[in-house]
Amino acid sequence: MDRKLQHTSMVPIDLTYKKLEEITNNFSEDHKVGSGGYGLVYKGVLDSGTEIAIKKLHQMVGLDDVQFKKEFNNLMKLQHKNIIKLVGYCYEIRHKYVKVHGEHVLARMEERALCFEYLQRGSLDKHLSDESCGLDWHTRYKIIKGICEGLDYLHNGSKDHIYHLDLKPANILLDENIMPKISDFGLSRLFGTTQTHTTKNFIGTPGYMPPEYIDKRQISKKFDVFSLGVLIIQIMAGPLGHSKSAEMLPQKFIEHVQEQWKKTLQATSGDTTLQEADSLAVKTCIEIALRCVEADRVKRPTIREIIDKLNEIETVRKSLIGQRSECNLLERRLAIDPLELRFPFEVDRDVSCVLQLTNRSGDFVAFTAQANQSKYWTVPERGIMPPWSKRYVIATLKAQVNMPDSMQCNDLLHVQSTRVTDDDGDSATVDGLAEDFEKKMMVGNADEAWLPIVYVALPPPRSP
């Protein structure tokens, strides 16, 4: 049974308090997975087998009712892959005997809980580390991009703009594929305009609040942008990254972060072209982050400008990879056509495209063709080609339930090849060649190409 939830427009289910007690063993410590300012979070499993996270609000007279309704109403408006999905809720009023001043009285109890999809990897703050250990650069970039896309949806996804007002690592959850999802909308506000607003109440988390809010209680979209900047710095430079950035001149800090990542990229990849592309992405991301934490909110970019800049990074990276592939093509024994895979995307259908490999040498050539994401498969995934031969590889995208937000994806097909012979220098058996191939791959003695993947939307059917 597939126990993972998909993002659909399904209405959250009404769960009884008794059912929540049952699936959490009466809200036992064994089921507790987290806590916050307004409640505790427990893990439970529904009868369908779906794992959920249950946020049980504290009993706080007056405040909890406002908090519950605010978060519930905001979450009901949101449907995005980078926003936590509301699965169900509980809102019950009951009476319970409690002892007050030595006497038993029948007290009114208002039980409120919000139930979300359960994300296996927990919150981002548990994964933050410096650049020399922990998550690699591509994973960190994926997290940054996902958070930005989720925030763009909040700010610009509808005529009513939602400001989160509490973006921080503890409120970014990660699924099993390390896709980030923005959570905890208890402090978020819904505004019908993009104007700046003023509040009397002090909200948010110290360290993530912008100066104009601390000094004048002013709220705008740039509040979230400031918090995002702090987040990006911490993702790239570790939990203490923002403190370091405050102690250094901006250009010095950019150079420091870039230098630290340069060492890590060199240690994990022998491909100088990829190192150059990733180093450029590191520099651009830290520049974006420092612009986000500008004291003057006018100088901060909008989330849409940030998304555009990240898309530029990906375009440049694909261009560098493509240039490297074209420059090296004549030097290789194995020719690859095309150098970009284009999938004719259709919802709920497997779609495929064909890659032609040509062995332009008098040697036996072994190859592998694998995507960087598990949603693709290739047939064949590996093989051995005789001299002066052609081979076709079919790459297939597994059926996807939703149309992607952008037809330009970040996925790549990795093709590696090498000349293989037996000890005598002659053509050998398939098993012998494969064994030789694996040895060469392990020591990096092989050609490789990274082919960008894009989706192509099919035209709508014509009316008869």
Write structural notes for this entry.
This protein is 33% helix and 28% strand. The chain contains ten helices and 21 strands. The strands form six sheets. It has a six-stranded mixed sheet, with helices on both faces. A hairpin with a 5-residue loop joins strand 8 (172-174) and strand 9. Helix 5 packs antiparallel against helix 8 and helix 7 runs antiparallel to helix 8. Mean pLDDT is 81; it is low at 1-9 and 422-428. Keywords: ATP-binding, Kinase, Nucleotide-binding, Serine/threonine-protein kinase, Transferase. InterPro entries: Ig-like_fold, Kinase-like_dom_sf, MSP_dom, PapD-like_sf, Prot_kinase_dom, Protein_kinase_ATP_BS, Ser/Thr_kinase_AS. Belongs to the protein kinase superfamily.
- Write down the overall mean pLDDT: 81
Overall geometry: globular
This entry's quaternary arrangement is single chain
Structural class: alpha+beta
Number of helices: 10
Instruction: Kindly state the percentage of residues in helix.
Output: 25-40%
The number of strands is 21
Side-by-side strand order of the widest sheet: 1-5-6-4-3-2
Q: How is the main sheet built?
A: 6 strands, mixed
Strand content: 25-35%
Which value, in Å, is the CA radius of gyration?
A: 26 Å
Distance between the termini: 41 Å
Q: Which residue ranges are poorly predicted, with pLDDT under 50 across at least 5 consecutive positions?
A: 1-9, 422-428
Write the layout of secondary structure elements.
Layout: E1 13-14, H1 17-23, E2 32-35, E3 39-45, E4 51-57, H2 63-76, E5 86-100, E6 103-117, H3 137-156, E7 161-163, E8 172-174, E9 180-182, E10 189-191, E11 197-198, H4 211-216, E12 218-219, H5 221-237, H6 241-247, H7 250-268, H8 272-292, H9 303-329, E13 334-337, E14 341-345, E15 351-359, E16 365-371, E17 376-379, E18 382-385, E19 390-397, E20 408-419, H10 430-442, E21 447-457
Parallel strand pairs: 1-5, 14-21
Antiparallel strand pairs: 2-3, 3-4, 4-6, 5-6, 7-10, 8-9, 11-12, 13-15, 15-19, 16-18, 16-20, 17-19, 20-21
